[in-house]
Amino acid sequence: MTATRPLVVLAAGGTGGHLFPAEALAGVLAARGIDVDLATDARAARYAGHFPARRIHVLPAETVRGRSPVALARTALTLGLGLARGYRLMRALRPAAVVGFGGYPTVPPILAARLAGLPTLIHEANAVMGRANALLASRVTAIATGYPDIFAGHPLLAAKAHHTGNPVRPAVIAAASLYEAPVEGGPLDLLVFGGSQGARVMSEIVPPAIERLDPVLRARLRVVQQARPEDIEAVRATYDRLGVSVELAPFFADLPARMARAHLVVARSGAMTVAELGVIGRPSVLVPLPGALDQDQLANASALAKGGGAVLMPQDHFTPESFAELLGVYAAHPGDLATMAAAARRMGRADAAERLAALVLATAGIEA
Prior knowledge:
Elements lengths: L6 E5 L4 H16 L3 E6 L1 H4 L10 E3 L10 H25 L3 E4 L6 H9 L4 E5 L6 H6 L5 E4 L9 H4 L2 E3 L6 H6 L12 E5 L6 H13 L3 H6 E6 L5 H11 L2 E5 L5 H7 L2 E4 L3 H10 L3 E3 L9 H11 L4 E2 L7 H13 L1 H14 L4 H13 L4
Parallel strand pairs: 1-2, 1-4, 2-3, 4-5, 5-6, 6-7, 8-9, 8-11, 9-10, 11-12, 12-13
Helix pairs in contact: 1-16, 3-4, 8-10, 8-14, 12-15
């Protein structure tokens, strides 16, 4: 008789920042003979077609979007329905462990697993804990973190926390390479992206900053930039007028490879962006998304900047004038870019998926 393979359920939804580390863990678990199912919400399920899971289970979930009694009641009702369905699912599957990756779509499956008496684990990618994970932290068996010491002052949570780093996609591991600084008079490759919430400011600031550069420096630039569909033509018109080599698109499927080809990256500072910059080892100017309740992007960028791997530029300081000045400095001192790249690389955790998998197996009581 063939032995039954252990099953681990991963709970992730919402954005790529949650799905990408779950995907990386799924690949490592599968390579170790573990079956993986994905529990997610309807929105994320539309983007999870290539997720390496045996099955995808869709559970009702809702993000807290307002403080009105009606909005809170709607959220509570949806999460309650998700919890009830999740409990039935956990009783039917009896997985060895359930692992959540943050965001409200993880709340029903993790709480359901807890009620069913199953080992549970959450992974917090950011340098500060998000609201959904904060709700779950005291209830789970173990906590994995992308950054060290995020529970300073919380001894009960610190006691079950393990710093694994942030798992990155195989494409990121494949893109990791030694950094080669731009040579005097040679091309200077600039990669600019901002994610779904951040591309607009890049379109508003970067082209006029480049317009302010000395024409000799401007002629060296090769720009790859993400822009919203509604912004692309205006951005293209500026670059065409300036004679700057540019590739524009709303989305780049091969972003890790493009990071590796860049001399300097300009981006928001989501947890996965920062993790990928570290593993690939590229210098960056990070512009955290302002106004976030948890200020997670500010914390992520601050951690990389303190280690010397990035420049933190808050959005109210991210102006055409200030960014043009910064570009001029790095063009004149390419060794500073190489130093920053090396610092970022030292902070990267290319083995984070393996470290997280080991923690999952230990929590689940599965022999490696």
